[in-house]
């Protein structure tokens, strides 16, 4: 009986591997929208998009005042500002080859093709949103980076969802602290 069970497991695993479907990998951090299929495989239903929050020991008004400058220091364009809700948005912009002197691949992960990392080979689109909210210790900043990539040569019309590595969010928070002298 054990031999039959082991044989069935080997056949099922071998069949799944031979299907040609790529394995689904998860990036570090929260993985929203993951479910299990009938075969037991983890299936991602949504992207790894979450805000990185940072607490700044300063009044909300001060953080809000310097946040647009902190975005500019990080070369993030500013498309809209909502003072009442204290939110900023970049709008979707074309990912540059470098951000603050570092390659885009340090900031965004779009997976790989046989030719190498998509972030270096494909056209990346980025959208950044930020908010500032009051907190008992000062101000709570939240920054969300959402990105996708498309093949530059037109061989693949579908976009691939990318994940932020959290670096741009930390740079923006550091820029706020520098501008506030904290």
What is the CATH architecture descriptor of the largest domain? Answer: 2-Layer Sandwich
Please state the CA-atom Rg, rounded to the nearest Å: 21 Å
Helix content: 25-40%
Q: Residue ranges: pLDDT <50 for 5 or more in a row?
A: 1-46
Count of runs of 4 or more consecutive helical residues? 4
Number of strands: 14
Quickly give the structural class: alpha+beta
State the name of the first-level CATH class of the largest domain: Alpha Beta
CATH topology of the largest domain: Alpha-D-Glucose-1,6-Bisphosphate, Chain A, domain 4
Largest sheet: 8 strands, antiparallel
Ends distance: 67 Å
Bulk shape: elongated
- Mean pLDDT across the residues is 79
Q: Supply the number of structural domains.
A: 2
In sequence order, what are the helices and strands, one letter per element?
HEEEHEEEEEEEEHEEEH
Proportion of beta-strand residues: 25-35%
